[in-house]
Amino acid sequence: MNIPENLKYTKDHEWLRIEGEEAYVGITDYAQGELGDIVFLEIETEGEELAKEEVFGTIEAVKTVSDMFMPVGGEVLEANDKLEESPEIVNKDPYGDGWLVKIKMTNPSELDELLDAAAYKNLLEA
């Protein structure tokens, strides 16, 4: 299973890639594997400011629908338009082209509460 070292992780299986004050959010390789074939994403929070752990959208797979949670508080700047036509990108490339939203972080100190790759791996093995 792929767990990139340069990302931060949540216990809910979201990842965060930090680029200055902005960050990209997606779901982990583990999460996409557990969900199965992803068929639809609904992200209607673009332009909204959301708190940490607030729902920013839903992801629908063949067998279930799951909420997606903000790893840190911030404004949703952009949703990944590619996923409207091709939601399966999340299955194929969860850490690259399969990112879900781009955010502007409002409280970078919340990053300290996220897991690094080793802690996330330990969570999965527990």
How are the elements arranged and paired?
Elements: E1 8-9, E2 14-19, E3 22-27, H1 29-35, E4 38-42, E5 49-50, E6 55-61, E7 65-69, E8 74-79, H2 82-85, H3 89-92, E9 101-105, H4 117-125
Antiparallel strand pairs: 1-2, 2-3, 3-9, 4-6, 5-8, 6-7, 8-9
Give me some keywords for this one.
126 residues; alpha+beta; OB fold (Dihydrolipoamide Acetyltransferase, E2P); six-stranded antiparallel sheet; 4 helices; 9 strands; globular
Structure explained in plain terms:
- This protein has one domain (16-111): OB fold (Dihydrolipoamide Acetyltransferase, E2P).
- The chain has helices at 29-35, 82-85, 89-92, 117-125; strands at residues 8-9, 14-19, 22-27, 38-42, 49-50, 55-61, 65-69, 74-79, 101-105.
- The two termini are 15 Å apart.
- The mean pLDDT is 96.
- The protein is globular, with a radius of gyration of 13 Å.
- A hairpin with a 3-residue loop joins strand 6 and strand 7.
- The protein has 126 residues and is of the alpha+beta class.
- The strands form two sheets. A six-stranded antiparallel sheet has the order 1-2-3-9-8-5. Strands 4-6-7 form a three-stranded antiparallel sheet, with no helix packed on it.
- The protein contains four helices and nine strands.
